[in-house]
């Protein structure tokens, strides 16, 4: 098969707009869509980096309809494929999906439609690409383009690596004349470079849309009693609103959803351990009803297109900035004010550090994970505008502080914490580097708990030297020392804290250390006398 000369393609400039209006019912293109569509219609390769909700789908759907032949769309999730195919079919487009959840007979029929030129768009799961039946049918078909959705899945830097995506170089090798468009909402520079390398898109034109979501307010609070803090946040600021609450474990999802429900919040759980039927019912209710709060693991969210999600809350620390940005990006797609709220505490840091230390993964993988975690911790502990920080991680510069995050609203104070840090570290050292923060705090504050008595820690020099600081203040110190990497959680000692080499300058050379002061919770601030 040979490529058609470009002039044979009906690509008059007005055609894409006509398709946008007649098929999709929209008046005009949004942002860079028109430029991308024109480029792909003309046969160019493209890499599109656009935030969630930016309107990526039309960037390949319209060229597929305008160009001759069928557009092949690689998509990682069956649910996403089904949703898109249903919406397109409804709009009168000849669309189909091909995935492993179908009967062989159905698959054969779809491939016959492809070979016979009866399809405009075929969505396909990555693992189907290499099957002989697909390759043969595609050889017989006229192909309009290849779209590779969620292209970050090809990269181990991304948070959602799928080995099947690596095989997608085959598209380019077998059908080099067919234009390719790769799309993702994960834009940090290492992932971006990796996508280009893995998919051999060096010659593709890049379309990078600003990732800023100015309508989202970012806020991070120190975790104390997370459920109560969450409930307060919802009641104060988002009563009756739809929202998503992310937790790291299924157990925590179930418990949190049940507890919120008892408190009168219409919360539903969602995680991979639930029955497929239950998951689907909960997702449908979330999409159709007003004001449902979905409590979920990260299994929930990809491809969810609900414009009026008013808040995304994290009760546990996400693994990376990219994951965090993608998850929070599900709030406020309609452009109206929304909140990204996160409670973050000592346990989160210790838990992640311990998980990393204990991991048996290859070294370079561990290094990558550690770099991601460090960036995430730095975000939590930053004294800089949160949006500036986030966008910089995604390779984008914000000219000035955003005015719409907790730090901009209320700049953080720092304090000279050298003395406190040294006390904390000597408590770790003198107790043998194997105890958790709560016990160390008891030692520092001179509390004669059973555990203190059992280990004779009331006889230590450090016993009671930290009675000037509250428990919360000490938790904040330990949390920040962990985040800074001066101390770490030892997996051999069940997460007991120990010193790292980085502790030396502070402990021995008395290098000054400034820590941030945790802002008082809102309720306490409100109760505080004014004037
Ligand atoms: P993404 O895949 O980037 O997350 P989608 O393609 O799902 O985004 O689009 C997000 C929403 O924006 C959808 O509801 C879509 O119908 C809508 N949309 C996209 N482009 C336009 C447009 N040009 N005009 C109006 N609405 C649009
Ligand atoms: Zn800001």
TrEMBL record:
What's one Pfam family the UniProt record gives for this protein?
HRDC
GO biological process terms held by the UniProt record: DNA recombination; DNA repair; DNA replication; SOS response
* Gene Ontology molecular functions: 3'-5' DNA helicase activity; ATP binding; DNA binding; four-way junction helicase activity; hydrolase activity; metal ion binding
List cofactor names only: Mg(2+); Zn(2+)
Q: What is the lineage of its organism?
A: Bacteria, Pseudomonadati, Pseudomonadota, Alphaproteobacteria, Rhodospirillales
List keywords of the entry alphabetically.
ATP-binding, DNA damage, DNA recombination, DNA repair, DNA-binding, Helicase, Hydrolase, Isomerase, Metal-binding, Nucleotide-binding, Zinc
> Could you say which EC number(s) this protein's record lists?
5.6.2.4
Q: Which domain of life is it from?
A: Bacteria
Q: What PANTHER family does UniProt report for this protein, alphabetically?
A: ATP-DEPENDENT DNA HELICASE Q1, DNA HELICASE RECQ FAMILY MEMBER
One GO cellular component this record assigns the protein to is:
bacterial nucleoid
Q: Where is the Helicase ATP-binding domain?
A: 37-205
Q: Which PROSITE patterns match?
A: HELICASE_ATP_BIND_1, HELICASE_CTER, HRDC
Entry similarity comment? Belongs to the helicase family. RecQ subfamily.
The protein's name = DNA helicase RecQ
Keyword Lipoprotein carried by entry: no
Q: Which residues form the Helicase C-terminal domain?
A: 226-376
According to UniProt, the reaction catalysed is: Couples ATP hydrolysis with the unwinding of duplex DNA by translocating in the 3'-5' direction
Q: Which top EC class applies here?
A: isomerase
UniProt KW Lipoprotein keyword:
no
